[in-house]
Amino acid sequence: MSGHSKWHNIQGRKNAQDAKRGKIFQKISRELFMAAKQGGSDPNNNPSLRLVMDKARAANMPKDNIKRALDKAEGGDTTQYDEVQYEGYGPAGIGVLVEALTDNKNRTSSDVRVAITRHGGTMAGAGAVSYMFNRKGYFVVNREGLDVDEDQMLEAVLEAGAEDLQTSDDEFEIYTDPKDFSVVRDALEEQGFHFTTSELTMVPETTVPVPEDKLETFQNMIDALEDNDDVQNVYTSAEWPDEDPTK
């Protein structure tokens, strides 16, 4: 899972930039609206909404932004968003999986195609890439100020029902079966752990090194996809170098 971890670290640095924050909040607002529309605005009775609210809090999204999204859902807004998934390949056959929420499938399909093909990638048919990934629950616990070593954390994680723990100097990364997501989250929170990331994600079964001469182009592809307002998540099977290629 090292490739996924490395990409998440890159995402974390990118998302910290002020220029990204507004777009991130906009995308989370759309997810909040959709979840509340489908299951109601009470997170205690709507697991999907609670998941998105956890994501909003992890992103330090202002409470006013969250409230506006929920009020919009309760206020009878009739906007209809469709969940769509696009699949493609980057350099060296790297899998690219794109999840979107859109009110115009034709527009989003065209935009995603342009972002991928303009940067040397190719589109793929349904199922051609998604089989390379597994849906997982994913949590990150910052180690700064945390008086817990790896063995203690592993014991806590396994006791909570999670599947795997990855450890670095800065953080603990926890993976679980998606059906156990809520149980693991609640169990770890009861033990006093706080998450900087708490989400369902897609983890590649295997990773592919990004060719050195394609690093910048491939990063530009990911940036173009993430900059699209309709795109919620971009997953890849890329194995990045130790250093952020954008640095």
From TrEMBL:
Residues 5-75 form the TACO1/YebC-like N-terminal domain. One of its GO terms (molecular function) is DNA binding. It is found in: Cytoplasm. InterPro entries: Integrase-like_N (IPR017856), TACO1_YebC-like_2nd/3rd_dom (IPR048300), TACO1_YebC_N (IPR049083), Transcrip_reg_TACO1-like (IPR002876), Transcrip_reg_TACO1-like_dom3 (IPR026564), YebC-like (IPR029072). Keywords: Cytoplasm, DNA-binding, Transcription, Transcription regulation. The keyword tRNA processing does not apply. The keyword Transcription regulation applies. Its main location: cytoplasm. This is Probable transcriptional regulatory protein ACFQ3L_00990. It comes from Lacticaseibacillus jixianensis. Residues 1-21 are annotated as: Disordered. PANTHER family: TRANSCRIPTIONAL REGULATORY PROTEIN YEBC-RELATED (PTHR12532:SF6), TRANSLATIONAL ACTIVATOR OF CYTOCHROME C OXIDASE 1 (PTHR12532). Residues 81-237 form the TACO1/YebC-like second and third domain. Belongs to the TACO1 family.
